[in-house]
Specification:
Rossmann fold; 3 domains; four-stranded parallel β-sheet; 20 helices; globular; binds FE2/S2 (inorganic) cluster
């Protein structure tokens, strides 16, 4: 019998040239941890523990790990927790995005290299769930995604506050001179008041929802607040389920398919989810050979209403979504649009899951399909001479009054240039201008940070300007609001048309036509193209070199090219 047919610690033996010796040695070393022979004979459930002093969002990791272990033990398995890279969004430089693929590789390799029959992967902060889903899709061992859960909003001076839409709102007021230093200092201590991920439908909550929509997290678990006892029960249930999966495997490749990816896209649109999720879902799908076509996104967007009234699109917080019925309430509304035959990690198909659920829903938070919060989906892809391979706009969190516009361009050539000039009194900028940021994409040296939410120039902010058309090859926080065109591809740092934009040019935006065009004559563009030079050199060593050599553009999920699986023809 091959090693891969064995269970638990007998799997994937360390190679000493004598497999019996390898198993004997492994068991004797495992016994140094105090395990009995009986325990060491059980199926092993690996638990990816992403607790870190640099990740506030995962503060509840120790009790989640304990609860998963409890579930594993109760179901007859041996739980073994192991650490992986953890990515705390605000603690990483230049941006967590640079390290998402590193975490996915770490996760994939540790799932494969260590002897486990199934796994529970615990993540939450923005890049951690995409990294874990990418890693488990590639390793393709039975696995359950467990979410750490969102923070609770906080009451402050009679108002509910929650990271991080309110972080930006108050910072905007501070920049406009409406909140003084003492005020912003006090608010700083009240925005993120509990364990868990950002309290709104930002990237973390979006990816949690997509993990459940894909079928990789247990039904009903995406929106449970981090501090709610149900979160611990979800952890226990995930541990139990992993033991069942060890005995009757369902692999990620059976769950993450073209159909379930399309279900996840529908959910992304219906929840008014983060623009980042397009990049992450593309990367996850790419690991199983499924392509996401941005033209298809537009078709889905036109036929999928926004159903959830949550910040930044609406007014509520993730804890309200949980109390309103959770993601199941959204899935039930979307039911006619979903592929109900998709398998989930629970062992039920999506349709069986929805059949089995009670029907409670709070219509203040989750709107009915025929009376939605917004008639069309939250995200659209734009194409045109400025973005031949696409760009993304979150129309649900933007000002429709700016959707059909032509504007004069004010260009910032880098993030450093932006920081140096955006607030200077001499900046030549008018409220109707389009702000363009170049060289903030995947290969820019900044690794595509969440810098696409360019601040309104201070002199305009103080004059009451709240939104402007802003265009870049960067990303944007899922918690942000504004008429912001992101992920322009090809990016400026590889010589895309965005690199050729100059101050005073004109750009035409038409959300109705899904177009974004640079209105400059081709001969002038040719002249500029001939003068273009890459803004940064490839680093000489280490992960930074691997990243720069291998990262793909946004429409390929910014995954490393060698980690994607070639697309297979989709079966209908
Ligand atoms: Fe971790 Fe927002 S900072 S989810």
């Amino acid at each position: 019998m091959g090693a891969d047919k064995k269970i638990g610690l007998a799997r994937g033996l360390t190679n000493y040239g004598d497999s019996d010796f390898s198993l004997y040695l492994r068991r004797s070393f495992a016994k140094s941890m105090g395990f009995s022979s009986e325990m060491l004979a059980k199926p092993v459930i690996g638990i990816a523990d992403t607790g870190s002093g640099f990740n506030n969002c995962h503060r509840n990791m120790p009790e989640l790990v304990e609860a998963v272990k409890r579930g594993v033990l109760a179901a007859g398995g041996l739980p073994l927790a192991f650490p992986t890279v953890s990515l705390g969004e605000v603690f990483l430089s230049p941006t967590s995005m640079m390290f998402r693929n590193l975490m996915s590789m770490d996760t994939e390799e540790m799932l494969r290299a260590q002897p486990m029959d199934a796994a529970v992967l615990i993540g939450g902060c923005d890049k951690t769930v995409p990294a874990q889903l990418m890693g488990m899709a590639s390793a393709d061992i039975p696995a359950v995604q467990l979410i750490v859960g969102p923070m609770m909003p906080n009451m402050f001076h009679g108002e509910r506050l929650g990271a991080c839409t309110d972080c930006r709102r108050f910072w905007g007021m501070h920049r406009a001179g409406k909140v003084d230093q003492a005020g912003i200092d006090e608010i700083e201590g009240n925005l993120a008041a509990t364990a868990g991920t950002c309290a709104v439908m930002g990237t973390a909550s979006t990816m949690a929802s997509l993990a459940e929509a894909l079928g990789m997290a247990l039904p009903g678990t995406a929106a449970i607040p981090a501090v709610h006892a149900d979160r611990l029960r979800a952890a226990e249930a995930s541990g139990r389920r992993a033991v069942e999966l060890a005995k009757n495997p369902i692999r990620p490749s059976q769950i993450i398919t073209g159909k379930s990816v399309e279900n996840a896209l529908r959910v992304l649109l219906a929840i008014g989810g983060s623009t980042n999720a397009i990049v992450h879902l593309t990367a996850i799908a790419g690991r199983v050979g499924v392509n996401i076509d941005l033209n298809r996104l537009n078709v889905l967007s036109d036929t999928t209403p926004v159903l959830v009234d949550l910040k930044p699109t609406g007014q509520h917080y993730m804890s309200d979504l949980y109390a309103a019925g959770g993601l199941g309430a959204v899935l039930r509304e979307l039911r006619p649009l979903l592929h109900l035959d998709c398998m989930t990690v629970s062992g039920q198909t999506l349709g069986e899951r929805l059949d089995a659920e009670p029907g409670w829903v709070d219509r203040g938070v989750v709107k009915p399909f025929d009376a939605p919060y917004q008639k069309e989906g939250g995200l659209v892809a734009l194409f045109g001479s400025l973005a031949p391979n696409g760009a993304i706009l979150k129309r649900s969190a933007a000002d429709p009054g700016l959707f059909e516009r032509e504007g004069r361009v004010v260009v910032f050539t880098s993030l450093d240039d932006l920081a140096a000039r955006i607030d200077t009194p001499e900046l030549d900028v008018q409220p109707d201008d389009f702000l363009v940021l170049q060289n903030a994409g995947p290969k820019s040296g900044y690794a595509m940070p969440e810098a696409g939410y360019l601040p309104i120039p201070q002199k305009l902010a103080r004059a009451g300007v709240k939104d402007m058309v802003r265009i870049s090859d960067a990303r944007m926080s899922g918690t942000a609001f504004g008429t912001i065109v992101l992920h322009v591809s090809p990016e400026a740092a590889v010589g895309g048309p965005l690199a050729l934009v100059r101050d005073g040019d004109r750009i035409r935006l038409s959300v109705r036509e899904r177009r974004i065009d640079l209105l400059v004559a081709e001969d002038e563009l040719q002249r500029r193209r001939a003068q273009w030079k890459p803004p940064v050199e490839t680093p000489s060593r280490g992960y930074a070199r691997l990243y720069m050599q291998s990262v793909t553009q946004a429409e390929h999920g910014c995954d490393f090219a060698f980690l994607r699986r070639p697309a297979a023809p989709e079966k209908s």
